[in-house]
Write a structure and sequence with these properties.
CATH superfamily: Amino acid/polyamine transporter I
Strand order of the largest sheet: 1-6
Helix content: 55-70%
Number of helices: 18
CATH architecture: Up-down Bundle
Number of domains: 1
CATH class: Mainly Alpha
Number of strands: 6
Largest sheet: 2 strands, parallel
CATH topology: Amino acid/polyamine transporter I
Distance between the termini: 28 Å
Shape: globular
Strand content: 5-15%
């Protein structure tokens, strides 16, 4: 309401000029490629990081996190079709609660996007070393990664439709790579007795290693929030978003299980210097899929090495591109909702993309590349992802209770009735699991804990100062009303 006397004390209504809207141009291919670009690419760096802690239980750990990913994916599908706008879990939290909770969710998710962009570009540079070995060494791998980020930032500035077309082309090659590796693994490498012998219960991995591996394994399923953030640019989101998340889950889950089984068969767990290790993490931490190709029969090893090197770069470029798309749309949402300075949400009249947001994201992600270590970047991702996913689950459940009549083009299965309200069981289980995983991250991941809380604290300071100096509510929900500027 625009009258001061009729507005709740915690809420204020503001009028802004009607923004230029993002264009609805994405169908299932563009949406699938954007999501798969993040999710399907992460195996190229996540496998080594997870195996370093989970050891012989890596396939089971990835399967467990895959089920958790499915619950989260379905929660995002319901939320994104219910509120098809840029913002993801931040948009869900804003509708269910208020702006400061929405901002907190969006801000930690922004950290994940930055990590996804940086780690994907950095890993792409390491796989490029297949063709030019010097690129795989510091500082050349970092320089190459920064150049990759700059190029894709420029590509996205030209518009989402052009960017999506590039994603679709690259994703075809990426899927072919992963299927080929899985097939060769089944034919020549996977050995069930070795996989059983890899597990030394309570010792390798220890309970702390297992918990660490479980918490870090979610980096293997990065990117599902990309679908939600692209809801405002998707045609018929009620139908296409649920189909996309199911397709992405099915593809990635199957390929991840076969790849991890292949890796642990080729590089069994062994004891070295009083520690249990596996060669896939010790020798190929930055490029684990290249390690798998080195275990192939000699007759096809060299051919596959170059083939995988080329296509790993392709899929990691998709992830870099998809991360930039998602991060810029999240920044657009935060600026549009006055959670960050509004100039960030301005959209180019020519390309219909948030130009300033794209430039800011490119600079920040390029700076994160300078960390130069995949395992540290993974720590940062786990902190933000588990917190944002938990908030998505909580928000969708809260909206089922607060707004049961809200239009839901897609409603996740397995619902139970409590006090006359239909509660999604998958969101409850998913929220409990992601919350528990976040506490594990805080307990076991030093870099994630320190940098994560520092990032969240810095964001809240920015948010509070901005709202205070612009005389907008800090704890309430800002009602945004657009008005048309009439030119005479």
């Amino acid at each position: 309401m625009s009258e001061r006397g009729q507005t709740r004390p915690a809420d204020v209504a503001v009028h802004i000029e009607r923004p230029i809207k993002l264009r609805r141009v994405l169908g299932i291919p563009g949406l699938y490629s954007a999501a798969y670009g993040n999710v399907g690419s992460s195996i190229y760096y996540a496998l080594g990081v997870v195996a370093m802690s989970a050891l012989g239980l890596t396939p089971l750990v990835l399967a467990f996190s895959g089920i958790l990913f499915l619950f989260t994916a379905l929660t995002y599908a319901e939320g994104a079709t219910m509120l098809p706008e840029a913002g993801g879990s931040g948009a869900f939290a804003r509708r269910a609660f208020n702006d400061i909770i929405s901002f907190s969710s969006s801000w930690v998710l922004m950290l994940d996007y930055l990590v996804t962009i940086a780690i994907s570009a950095f890993s792409a540079a390491n796989y490029l070393a297949t063709f030019l070995p010097v690129i795989g060494q510091a500082p050349y791998n970092m320089i190459t990664a920064i150049v990759i980020i700059a190029v894709f930032t420029a590509v996205n500035i030209t518009g989402i439709k052009e960017s999506a077309r590039l994603n679709v082309i690259l994703v075809v090659f990426g899927i072919l790579t992963q299927v080929a590796i899985a097939v060769v693994g089944v034919m020549f490498i996977i050995n069930i007795p070795i996989l059983i012998q890899n597990v030394h219960w309570g010792v390798a991995p220890s309970m702390q290693q297992l918990l660490f591996g479980l918490s870090i394994s979610m980096i293997g399923y990065t990117g599902i929030e990309t679908v939600a953030n692209l809801g405002s640019e998707t045609r018929q989101p009620g139908k296409r978003i649920p189909r996309t998340v199911i397709m992405v889950f099915g593809t990635v889950f199957i390929i991840y299980i076969f790849m991890s089984m292949t890796a642990l068969s080729a590089y069994p767990v062994y004891q070295f210097d009083n520690q249990w290790v596996t060669g896939i993490a010790e020798r190929f931490l930055n490029d684990p899929i290249m390690g798998i190709t080195q275990a192939f029969p000699e007759s096809i090893r060299n051919i596959f090495s170059y083939f995988v090197g080329f296509l790993a770069v392709a899929i990691l470029l998709i992830a870099t591109n998809a991360g930039i798309i998602g991060a810029s749309r999240l920044t657009y949402f935060m600026g549009l909702r006055q959670q960050l300075p509004s100039f960030i949400s301005s959209v180019s009249t020519r390309s219909r993309v948030p130009l300033k947001a794209l430039i800011i994201i490119g600079v920040l992600a390029g700076g994160l590349v300078l960390v130069g270590q995949v395992n540290i970047m993974a720590d940062l991702y786990a902190f933000g992802a588990m917190l944002a996913y938990t908030m998505a689950h909580v928000s969708v459940v809260a909206l089922r209770i607060k707004e049961p009549l809200l239009a839901r083009p897609y409603k996740m299965p397995l619902n139970i009735k409590i006090a006359g309200k239909e509660i999604p069981l998958m969101a409850i289980l998913g929220g409990l699991a992601t919350a528990a995983t976040w506490f594990i991250v805080v307990w076991t991941h030093e870099y994630g804990r320190i940098v994560g809380f520092a990032w969240l604290g810095a964001g809240l300071i920015i948010y509070v100062l901005y709202r205070f100096f612009t005389k907008r509510p800090i704890l309430g929900k800002l009602e945004i009303k657009t008005r048309v500027k009439i030119r005479r």
